[in-house]
Amino acid sequence: MTEEQKKKLEQKLWDIANELRGRMDADEFRDYILGFIFYKYLSERLHIYVDQELLKSEGLAFASLDEGNPVHQGILGAVQENCIDSLGYYLRPRELFSEVAKRGAEPGSFILADLSDTLNNIQKSTMGNESEEDFVNLFEDLDLNSSKLGRSNEARNTLISKVLAHLESIDFELTNSNSDVLGDAYEYLIGKFASGAGKKAGEFYTPQQVSTVLAKIVTTGKARLRSVYDPTCGSASLLLRVARELGYKKTNKSVGEFVGQELNRTTYNLARMNMILHGVHYLDFDIQQEDTLEHPQHMGQTFEAIVANPPFSAKWSANKIFESDDRFAEYGRLAPASKADFAFVQHMLHHLDEDGTMAVILPHGVLFRGGAEGAIREFLIRRNWLDAVIGLPENIFYGTGIPTCILVLKKCKETEDVLFVDASTCFQRGKNQNWLGEEDVNRIVGAYRTRAEEERFTHRALLAEIEENDFNLNIPRYVDTFVPEPPVDLEKVIRRVEQINLDMRDVDEELRGFCAELGLEAPL
Questions:
Q1: Is 406 helix (H, G, I), strand (E, B) or coil?
Q2: What does the alpha-carbon distance between residue 81 and residue 88 come to, in Å, rounded to a whole number?
Q3: Is the pLDDT reported for residue 30 higher than 90?
Q4: Please, what is the end-to-end C-alpha distance for the chain in angstroms?
Q5: Across the strands, what pairs with 352?
Q6: Rounded distance, CA 223 to CA 245, Å?
């Protein structure tokens, strides 16, 4: 897809968003648009599968099959069984997105009831099957009777019909294995809503370039991963960025399993949609909805790669019962109730394979805060689990301008040092928000992979040096970014001042001459 094609696609998508703008908050109309895109994808995917793999040899077309025809009924029964086995869900011919959009375009046609039934039927088709958990309540945020879509049923019907018509005009090129139009569209909208709505809508999304840094770090030296896990997965953008880094496709499953957990119900639905939209089979991902620290859903499992962008300094219970929890017990301390940052780190390390790598985004405070956090930090360093500390620039996350860092941890390191990277100047300045350019991403990742020391950018610190600093990981203690002022040649300055004074005397003399000619009193 060329840049020009991509821009045209993005403009079309934003035009659709503008149909809903002004009626509701950004995170609300996000749910409608992304939900309808997901419905269109499920419909087109099933339509292509049935026409090209099930009915092609029969010379039949799925959309033309009549449910009232006894012969067609038998065919549709077999089609439904195959769709459930292969795709995990089923849509009847009249429930296809193209058919509903076509009916919506007809004058006087009312489609809201049909559309609502269709979305419910997608979920019902999965009940009792392996895919049920991955499809349950996926469309629960699409309230087609909401007054925010219009005051009357007619107004709501007109608006939804327009949105469906706009989407129907977009070709997601699902038959082109080398195209990711759908993925680009989805990521564009998620990022657009996050940047436009601040913290409320941005908390579930990690900027693409930052996700790329984490993905490149945990895939260093790998062509394939057995599994990747994100305990605070949001919209699953980090998990999918790892997949993209390894060239994941249906024909090249370079990631064996995607696992995540998300607290927010709406975002949890978004994550499951995002997985399916990016071609991840429902059997290959396990996304759960619950509080990761209080109610972990994947205990007993370990993962080869772990990535996360947990909510910064979130609160948690820090209940004493967790002192005997396998995730926290060996540290002897729990992260404070007011700041769960290290609780997430401990949780992630518990789930990390012995040969795995984890990369987590955290606020700078984790590098130097004392108390329980200082004790946990010392434990990690003494066990030689901390691999790298990367300081990121300010104002690159939606909803917060604070500086952040990436901690990289491994249980089986090849080195006895900790790499410090000061990437605070690696950014491109934007009007409202800074961002990492491709060269910034490459410089940061290159520094991690080579571990080469570079003045005012990287430093490898041994345990003894960190111990001398009382296990304080504040990056300026290890990477000196001070740039001295160039030395001043005082004799040269004095000579220059003297010359300026001589030149000024000549100018004053010339000015007095001009004043005398004009009969004016000289100002000097």
A1: strand
A2: 10
A3: no
A4: 72
A5: 303
A6: 9
pLDDT tens-place string over residues 305-332: 999 999 999 999 999 999 999 999 999 9
Reading the block at residue 47, the tokens are: 């339509």
Q: Are 131 and 89 in contact (CB under 8 A)?
A: yes
Q: Which token pair is 118?
A: 């269709």
Contacts of 167 (CB under 8 A, 6+ apart): 16, 36, 37, 40, 97, 101
DSSP secondary structure, 320-373, as one string: GGGGGSTTTGGGS-PPPTT--HHHHHHHHHHTEEEEEEEEEEEEGGGGT--HHH
- Rounded Cα distance between 378 and 212, Å, is 29
Q: In the numeric block, which tokens belong to residue 455?
A: 């003045």
pLDDT at 197: 45
Alpha-helix residue ranges (DSSP H) falling in 398-452:
438-450
Average pLDDT, the chain: 90
Rounded CA gap, 447 and 458, in Å? 7
The residue assigned the tokens 């992630």 is 348
Alpha helices, H only, 203-293: 208-218, 237-245, 265-277
CA dihedral 224, 257, 327, 471 (to 10 degrees): 30
Query: CA 406 to CA 503: how far, in whole Å?
Result: 58
Give pLDDT tens digits for 390-430.
999 988 887 677 889 999 999 999 899 999 999 998 888 87
Structure tokens at 313: 């300094």
pLDDT at residue 157 tops 60: yes
| 384 CB-near residues (< 8 Å, 6+ apart) | 413, 416, 463
N residues, the chain = 524
Instruction: List pLDDT tens digits, range 279-291.
Output: 899 999 999 999 9
